[in-house]
Amino acid sequence: GIYKTFYKCQSARDEGSLFQLRNLINRRDVHGHDTVTERFRAHFAFVEDVLDGYICSAFMDYFGMEKLESDPRQNKPPPLLSTWSNEDKLRWLQSIGRHILEVYIKKGTSFLETNEMEEMDNQSSQMQACYNAAEKVYMCECSKSYKTLGHFKRHLQSIHNWTFSQEGETTTCTKDSVAEARASFMKCSLILRDTYDAYQMADGNRIFRNAKFEMLLADAFHHTKYRLWLWRFLAYENALLSPRQAFEYKWNCCSNTNGGIGRNVPNDLLVEMNVNAIKQKLRSQGANVTYDSARVIAVSSQVQDDIKQNIIRQCGSHFGSARPPVSKVMDIALIIQEAEKGQLMKTILGREGVFANFVDPFQRVVPTAFHKWISAQKQRAKFELI
């Protein structure tokens, strides 16, 4: 969704855009949303670098710095900062981070109206409580009955003065489309980074918290299958499983393959890795592969890998080769330079560029339609998810 929304070939001339930065720092493996699945690491690393560059550019604009080596001209650090305690320094940094988040990333935009969603949920619960399953009608407190929900809602509107939210397009007032697109990209990229880090650290709280934001983005990007998977992912933990099962489900959605902190992978990715390893061994047999040999490989491949890892660990030897970490300082410096040239952290009224009439993905979510879809999934879960 990030590449489909923000990576546009038409923006090659726009300074600081994703496509222009890709050509500038020569990321040859990045080709847009069509190849994200095949080359996820390259695309994810590019998003990470652009996000780091934008964050540094936002801090430079906050401190009034023209270059990375310049001294702050505004919002200068306290003169006796070095004498502060670590807790005071942390609070000072957190205050700056909150300011950057509110001014440069959120930019005063609001998410879905929580009160409106709660009101729709309460109305739906009250109408379901009025349903008589034996007679298959909706019974009102005034002793009138209706067979269909639509007629029952019209009765509540006309007689009992109920008000229902009308489904319609969200209206937004975009002052600077380029700055709005940049802020929206940073917002989506921060969610992606935090989710990726949560899986690596096996942090169940962050995984399930970010799943709510991901479900909103999946609805905005029209990723129907991913939206349904995320809803069921949350439903299992919040409603369908017992408290003990939900706790195990929440804190066992990752697996540690190499050992150590920050080396966890999602369980579905681990299954995919095992399947690819089995396919590779099957291809090595060529025409000699049989059903029995395939079954033996499928059963014993993971056991063989565990034995090999234990032997390597006990012998203290190093198996395979690893590339040294690549320094991205030069790339991030170029990204900061282009962001400063394009004035991405400034608000220039009337600026559009390629992102004319841009609407933030979170603002594309229609609350009434989204609530209607969630209510339908709840009804299906009563009969299907057992």
From TrEMBL:
InterPro entries the record matches: DUF6589 (IPR046496)
DUF6589 domain mapped to chain residues: 2-316
Pfam families with a match to the protein in the record: DUF6589
Name by which UniProt lists this protein: DUF6589 domain-containing protein
